[in-house]
Amino acid sequence: MVAGDPVRQVQAPAIFNRIFQRHGVDAVLVPAQVPAAHFSTFARAVLGADNIQALWLTIPHKTTLVDELGRMDTAARVAGAVNAVRRGADGQLEGALFDGEGLVSALHHWQLAPTGQRVLLVGAGGAGAAIAVALVAAGVSELRVRDADPGRAARLLQRLQAHAWPASGTGPRLTVWDGHAPLNDVDLVIHATPLGLHADDPLPLEVADLRPGAAVVDILMKPQATPLMRACAERGLTVHPGFEMLVQQVPDYLRFVGLPELAGTLAQDLSEVRRHLMTAPPG
Amino acid sequence: MVAGDPVRQVQAPAIFNRIFQRHGVDAVLVPAQVPAAHFSTFARAVLGADNIQALWLTIPHKTTLVDELGRMDTAARVAGAVNAVRRGADGQLEGALFDGEGLVSALHHWQLAPTGQRVLLVGAGGAGAAIAVALVAAGVSELRVRDADPGRAARLLQRLQAHAWPASGTGPRLTVWDGHAPLNDVDLVIHATPLGLHADDPLPLEVADLRPGAAVVDILMKPQATPLMRACAERGLTVHPGFEMLVQQVPDYLRFVGLPELAGTLAQDLSEVRRHLMTAPPG
């Protein structure tokens, strides 16, 4: 079950039910439109049914349950948000956030392995936080974070140092980017703010400051192409649309509901999901 | 959503999802396995989602919610059981019981219109009570009720007189049948007890006492044919399997979830449901 409010725009049922059908899995993903005030009650009640494996969450529910979860993965803890909750063997609710891992998998899909790269992350909200955790885990050499609220960027860096630091101890160089320091040494830019959603939004960064070999990913889903993507393309920069981040999360969701074998055999399905999201970008 | 415990045997999702698919209705019926102790919480939470129209109930949940319902139809009130609950416009839970109407529709399907008939009902439990309400509403001239517990039969007759009496005032002759009075004036027998489910069960009535023109309906679903059906067939009596009662309820369920147009165009679908239930009789 995937819960949101609204939920009509959510593409997950179309995507996952086609996968279940093709692979002969006796499961169905059902959308539930649940008001925020009712969501905690709803989630606990639904996860009390013996044949409902998990609840997948979209806006506004990704942050609602966080304080009630017994267990969370690191990305969820740092971002304060979850993509999915389930009931653990001991009855406790456990949550996971896949956005960041999805973005790193997308980078590999584009042959942009992030290990050792200098990365600028624009946006320190929930999505940005999830991505930051995954980039640290993937071994970037440097992570600069920009946010319209510099305090929010600094707090994200603190949470990364508290929760997401590699066991080895040698993490990346972490800095808050003030918007003025030069960008010509950045290898990769990830854009994770809503800027571009409205026609009169400014660009989230000055594209002209990037070096010609830099790659850009814009996780804004609409409009396609986004204003940032168009500006990068005009300048001849390599630019990628963010919905690949969603494509690459499909196996994560399947593993979370106990279908790891299925998660491993999805090459054809992911091509189809990619085509589906190109023609119906998620809201 | 249809809730039971267990729920694996329930045929409703296969039946209704095929109907939704064929008619292009954007809806899905999902089974939920819910422990009885958790059911009240579950039902209220699920019906709080804006896109979940109703909850359909099977064993053991048909009786669980009855005391919490704001509104019930007459059959539900007399039987103390519901097949379906939904949230009314004012937020109150409302329930309905379709078993009895389904049985009367099945009688019409077999061209056994019950109006003016003398009927023996064997079994005064939930199913028997639902059927009794519908038979009174259909204008039977006489209703004799037998139950292994004569007190239970008498209480059913009292509830019928209190709740189900026709507005005109001229209801049928109601009696508790003691198992000894002659049966040779009975037109129609409805069997609504579990007798026959186990191999060593006695027959629920002495078939030899029925007159040759009498018709018999056995609503016991398994085994098919039931012992009573076999005994009737051996004696040359007209006998019908009870799953037609389920077939004929399909439109009731669709009307309950706000799909009256669909409920009116099901001739082909009901033939298919009939074939489905013949090959996979419900538990």
TrEMBL record, chains A, B:
Domain Shikimate dehydrogenase substrate binding N-terminal: 2-85
Gene3D superfamilies per the UniProt record, alphabetical: Leucine Dehydrogenase, chain A, domain 1 (3.40.50.10860), NAD(P)-binding Rossmann-like Domain (3.40.50.720)
UniProt GO BP: aromatic amino acid family biosynthetic process; chorismate biosynthetic process; shikimate metabolic process
Record-annotated membrane-spanning stretches: 119-140
Pathway membership, UniProt: Metabolic intermediate biosynthesis; chorismate biosynthesis; chorismate from D-erythrose 4-phosphate and phosphoenolpyruvate: step 4/7
Keywords: Amino-acid biosynthesis, Aromatic amino acid biosynthesis, Membrane, Oxidoreductase, Transmembrane, Transmembrane helix
Source organism, top-level taxon: Bacteria
Keyword Nucleotide-binding recorded: no
Cellular component terms (Gene Ontology): cytosol
Record bears the keyword DNA damage: no
SUPFAM superfamilies in UniProt: Aminoacid dehydrogenase-like, N-terminal domain, NAD(P)-binding Rossmann-fold domains
GO molecular function: NADP binding; shikimate 3-dehydrogenase (NADP+) activity
Protein name, as recorded: Shikimate dehydrogenase
